[in-house]
Design goal:
Blueprint: E1 2-9, E2 12-21, H1 27-45, E3 48-51, E4 54-56
Parallel strand pairs: 2-3, 2-4
Antiparallel strand pairs: 1-2
Length: 68
C-alpha cells in the first residue's frame, strides 16, 4: 500500500490508501482482499469511511507492501 491519508470530521474517521495487488489477481480476489482489510480497519476504528483505490503492481505509482 502507499499514499495513506486519514482525517477526522466530527466523530467519523476517513481513511484512504492505494492498494497494490499482483497484476494477475482476479477481480473477485481483489474485492475479497479489500473487504478483509477494510473490515479489520473498521474493527479497530469503528465507524470509518474507507476508500481503497486498487493498482496492479506493475502500474503502481510508488513501491510499497504487496498484499498477496
Amino acid at each position: 500500500m502507499h499514499a495513506p491519508r486519514t482525517r477526522h470530521a466530527g466523530c467519523i474517521t476517513f481513511v484512504e490508501f492505494h492498494l497494490m495487488v499482483p497484476s494477475d489477481m482476479r477481480a473477485v480476489e481483489t474485492h475479497e482482499t479489500c473487504d478483509r482489510i477494510e473490515g479489520a480497519l473498521r474493527t479497530e476504528l469503528g465507524a470509518a469511511v474507507i476508500t481503497t483505490p486498487v493498482e496492479p503492481e506493475g502500474n503502481a505509482e510508488h513501491q510499497g507492501v504487496l498484499v498477496l
